[in-house]
Amino acid sequence: MTLHHVQLACPPGSEDTLRGYYVGVLGCTELPKPPVLAARGGAWFRSPGGADLHLGVEEDFRPARKAHPALNWADLDGLAETITAAGYEVTWGDDEVPGMRRFHTFDVLGNRLEFVAT
């Protein structure tokens, strides 16, 4: 089994806000959605490392504060600096996971994200 994508939730009408964060801050590429799915709103992104994130509209949106994707990132320190410079908090992990550097942050909507380097 391999992972195809991870889906997070977003509120209706948040697509431009999502683009600002996922493309503008993280450097992801927006992926085109099939027309029938595009009509539902939301957005799809691919990280520089090739992980796909889908953000789907939930009418009663609540950000995922605990559940989260963990994305491998080649330049973890550079990403942390970029996220911090954009005004978002970065919380570095401790040594609970041997051999893995990691940090958590929250996207522009409050969804938790983890970035790791192994």
Automatic annotation (TrEMBL):
Q: Which residues form the VOC domain?
A: 2-118
Protein name according to UniProt: VOC domain-containing protein
Matching entries from InterPro entries are given as: Glyas_Bleomycin-R_OHBP_Dase (IPR029068), VOC_core (IPR037523)
Alphabetical list of SUPFAM superfamilies matching this protein = Glyoxalase/Bleomycin resistance protein/Dihydroxybiphenyl dioxygenase (SSF54593)
